[in-house]
Design goal:
It is a single chain. This protein has 295 residues and is α+β, with helices and mostly antiparallel strands. It folds into two domains: 170 residues, 2-Layer Sandwich (Alpha-Beta Plaits), CATH 3.30.70.1230; 119 residues, Tumour Suppressor Smad4 (Sandwich). Helix content is 22%, strand content 38%. Strands 1, 2, 3, 4, 5, 6, 7 and 8 form an eight-stranded mixed β-sheet that branches. A six-stranded antiparallel β-sheet has the order 10-9-19-18-15-16, with no helix packed on it. A five-stranded mixed β-sheet has the order 12-11-13-14-17, with no helix packed on it. Strand 2 and strand 3 form a beta hairpin. Helix 1 crosses helix 2. It is globular and about 65 Å long. The N and C termini lie far apart (64 Å). About 5% of the residues have low confidence.
Length: 295
Amino acid sequence: MSREIINCAVMFSDVAGSTALYDKFGDTKAKAIIENCINLMADITKRYKGVVIKTIGDEIMCRFPTAEDGINACCSIQEAVSILTGPDDNPMAVRIGIHAGEAILDDNDVFGDAVNVAARMAGIAKARQIITTEDTYNQLSEDLQEMAREFDTTSVKGKQEQITIYDVVWDEEDDVTRMSFTPAQSSTDAEITMTYSGQSKVLTQADMPIVIGRGAKADITIDAPLASRSHVMLDYNRGKFVLADQSTNGTYIKLNDGKEVYLRREELPLSSRGAISMGEKVDESSPLVISFSVA
């Protein structure tokens, strides 16, 4: 096949936690678990007019004729993988990055801008996430656009300007309930009080999850210059409030014992009390720091 320029959607998807699977179950069993997941993703890709380009270890690379086909496939993959379980009955998870644009097709493989950007989106995605670009978002139907929320901006090698990226919320239960930063009246056993810029809010597990960042669509909007639009997500899992960083510059948390923890695409259960800073070390005198107290 001769080289040709095509417009397509390129998707990268990899199995989250694959290293832990090898550590826990050994090479043979872990490889079988991952191959089962890869085969499932390949089958769904073909269902949506996609072509599997290659698989490398725990990752699959595919292309689709349109952004719409690609995003629909991504959502179906996440839904299918979410009900898979490993030998320990823990759910499987994948992270997906996808971008629709111009690429060079050469003997089934693809190269160029669409591939580079899609790989960057996959690098940003966390488990159970679908991360895509504004260019891809603009090619989607209204129904699919309603499933996506503006997530952040990021740089891509070879591009001078930062690009806007979106998180496609494929799981209705994972969508965020929007609320203003004003005192709330709710009562459940577990509560976390968050104080920012002189205002305090008491939150319960019923309010979760919430997004904190500098974007107008965040549940708690902060003015920190190094904060991402959707910097962190606060959720309630297994009896604990859990803070998950999803930012470019990371998050610093100063705990009650004085220890400072740095998160970069990681999670931390919150307990007792402490302070949270977006993108820079905690300065408890700064009005940009969020203090928290768990009861």
